């Protein structure tokens, strides 16, 4: 072997951030080669993407609107991931939250606005939390693989909404078009500074979740449980209770996302309510190192990427799926780069030299 | 009787993409690597197989292209998880994101297109002389296209490989206790790379079965979650290729039961029947996790990167 892999003892924060930025750059270069193969100029495309995400007041607002669900969902997923509970059921939890909020919006359209909105929020958080409690219960009770269960529940939730949209909740006034009626004015979140008030909720939640994860007993217990179940048990953590509580919070936040999306963005419930946020949020959560402030930044950048993706679709005719490829690429490179955060390569120049290096 | 036979035969066809993907994931996990990118690799295989099928009209080339596309996805996973020791769960999820984007991107201009007629003819059912004349068993098992037969052969071949050969024993050792296998001078990384790649190729083949034979035209997200059901089926099959046959065909049956029930005019919404495969998957996982027997234990080193220096 030419190189020898040595574990790093300590790495400065600046250096680890540098490595990650380098990884994103490499991902952009690799994707650029891909764009070249499509007979397009990558620099032009990237510049158009920047324009598409930030080029005008309207586009910036669109980027923020796309960032809101990503931030809130990522914060929720981070709680589960911190516990090494792989909740990939964000989609389903968003859908069930959206469903519960829509139930109140459609059933009581004439309630006073503050009351109706509060009811919708509570219902959405409860529904999302309950949906996440199903895999949590099986995990806590029987150690059932949560990855698959959360994922299967996504599909079941989606079929449930499809059933409502094509069946009992179908708008009779839509002339045969399968859609659910629009909400009344009272069920729609108000705007603040040009964007719906969800951005205030998202920012507040970043702060709250930061405090919760770093300075609360439950947050600490979740982190310990994620590190090692045995350590948690020795430390006297009630493991089953922690799993259930953490997932109720995780799913509750995803449910809240569902409420915000149906109320402020779609003004109705439909099978497209999530827009894949539940999956994209997994990426942003991981890239955000499960930390609320970094999640805020990463989610915003990814929202820009998505907004830019839909822009280049119209400007260059590049399918929006290209943005998804870029997402995957960035994730691959950042994941790979973590290796260089944890280890360093040294030239294998003989035994004595290695020994010296390891000692020093 | 005739209805039962046609239902069972259709269940086997519907279960074939699941079978390839499940077998692929079984040998990947036997090497100690949990690849949650099955859905992504299936989609990559489905779109590449379809594209080459459209371009060349050659069934062998299209199947080969699909397998190579699946192996390409698996190759990314292997480099990251084996050489760079990344978290396998997150890497697998990233691969699914990438594969979904890849197929959505590539398949954009293929949507709605059908495969050429000569491919359709090639993938027509081909009754095996002799075997297909056996009453009941013949029409259920031996009156299919050749990829279904390839599914039987692959499962049996992998079963023999795992349980009856030296290499299979080494592979199981890599998944159970890599340090011991390393001490017995088994090349751990080589075993991991080869089996992850082979697993990806099988997932790609499963995807191609959907786009070339089962559907057979291109539609976005053609796998519709089958990759994830395959991951669950690995647990159901207890990492055993023979049991994968049973599980895949059972779920193939669940996949098509909706159409059949609707045909009988039974008063239940199609959307509830569509939930069945997913609900049953959850049920199966819960039941399997209730049985804490050794037979249902995953390979011991599953999900843990191996690093000789950190032993």
Short account of what is shown:
The complex is a heterodimer of chains A (360) and B (311). Chain A is mainly alpha-helical and 360 residues long.
Kindly report the spatial arrangement of strands forming the biggest sheet of chain B.
1-2
CATH architecture of chain B, by name, is Orthogonal Bundle
Instruction: Let me know the average pLDDT of chain B.
Output: 89
- Please give the alpha-carbon distance between the first and last residues of chain A: 22 Å
The succession of helices and strands of chain A, N to C, reads EHHHHHHEEHHHHHHHEH
Strand content of chain A: under 5%
Strand count, sense and closure of the main sheet of chain B? Answer: 2 strands, antiparallel
Poorly predicted tracts of residues of chain B = none
Separate helix tally of chain B: 13
Counting structural domains of chain B, the number is 1
The SSE string of chain B, one letter per element, is: HHHHHEHEHHHHHHH
Could you please describe the fold and organization of this structure?
The complex is a heterodimer of chains A (360) and B (311). With 360 residues, chain A is mostly helical. Chain A has one domain (68-343). Chain A is built from 14 helices and four strands. Chain A has helices spanning 13-37, 42-54, 57-82, 90-107, 113-142, 146-166, 198-215, 217-227, 229-234, 239-266, 277-287, 292-316, 321-342, 351-359; strands spanning 3-7, 191-192, 195-196, 343-347. In chain A, α4 (90-107) runs parallel beside α6 (146-166). Chain A is globular, with a radius of gyration of 23 Å. Residues 349-360 of chain A have low confidence and may be disordered. Chain B is mainly α. Chain B has a single domain, classed as ABC transporter involved in vitamin B12 uptake, BtuC (Orthogonal Bundle), CATH 1.10.3470. Chain B has helices at residues 2-30, 38-56, 59-83, 88-106, 117-122, 137-141, 146-164, 166-176, 178-183, 188-214, 226-236, 241-263, 270-290; strands at residues 126-127, 143-144. In chain B, strands 1-2 form a two-stranded antiparallel ribbon. In chain B, α1 runs antiparallel to α12, α2 packs across α11 and α11 (226-236) packs parallel to α13. The longest helix of chain B has 29 residues, at 2-30. Chain B is globular and about 60 Å long. The relative contact order of chain B is 0.20. Chains A and B meet through α6, α11 and α13 of A and α3, α4, α11 and α13 of B.
